[in-house]
Amino acid sequence: MFGAVQYQGIKTAVNAVRKGQTIEFKNSLWVVNGKEHGVMGRGSALVKLELRNTTNGSKCVERFQPSDSVEVKQAHLEQYQYLYTAGDRVYLLNQETFEELELEKSALEGGEKLFPMLEDNMVVTVQFIESAGPVAFRLPPQHVYTVESCTDVVGHSKGATYKPATLTNGCRVTIPDFVKAGDRILVDTAEMKYINRA
């Protein structure tokens, strides 16, 4: 008999693993929340993966040699609509079948720091692994938000001038000087950065 986890996957070099993918590691499924390349003491390279366990939500950082390989699980993606949050649970709705899905807040790809970017009725992408069910969800790459307040920049500069702003969801971003309170702007949700006016 094989190990406890038996999902179809593809052996992949750790260097090729991407943020958001699900891997099998230590007989469990883990979602890659972050990836960083580094150097060890004698100049040898290493790859650090920030991982979140899909079963219990625990997190860890594991170090690998670039030549190491892991099994990346094949996933399929589905669109769901965000409904509400209760405690540490998020409730989503499949717009085709009207089935409700419940996930942990920690299943948000990119970490809970991005949670304030989630808005009512926002369409999110849920990652499913065959036989394991939903393992993670992600925000759309870009979304339109309203600027609630901003601090005007004093004095003039020759180059482009930027100022801090607070969105209606409470998140802070840096915006160009010509954007005013009440304007709707397009924001990169992963980086929480201004893209342009909507």
From TrEMBL:
InterPro entries in the cross-refs: Elong-fact-P_C, NA-bd_OB-fold, Rib_uL2_dom2, Transl_elong_fac_P/YeiP, Transl_elong_KOW-like, Transl_elong_P/YeiP_cen, Translation_prot_SH3-like_sf
Pfam families on file: EFP, EFP_N, Elong-fact-P_C
GO terms for cellular component: cytosol
GO terms of molecular function: translation elongation factor activity
Domain Elongation factor P C-terminal: 143-197
Gene3D superfamilies in the cross-refs: 2.30.30.30, Nucleic acid-binding proteins (2.40.50.140)
Top-rank lineage group of the source organism: Eukaryota
UniProt domain Translation elongation factor P/YeiP central: residue ranges: 77-135
A GO BP annotation: peptide biosynthetic process
Family the UniProt entry places it in: Belongs to the elongation factor P family.
Protein name: Elongation factor P
Origin species: Basidiobolus meristosporus CBS 931.73
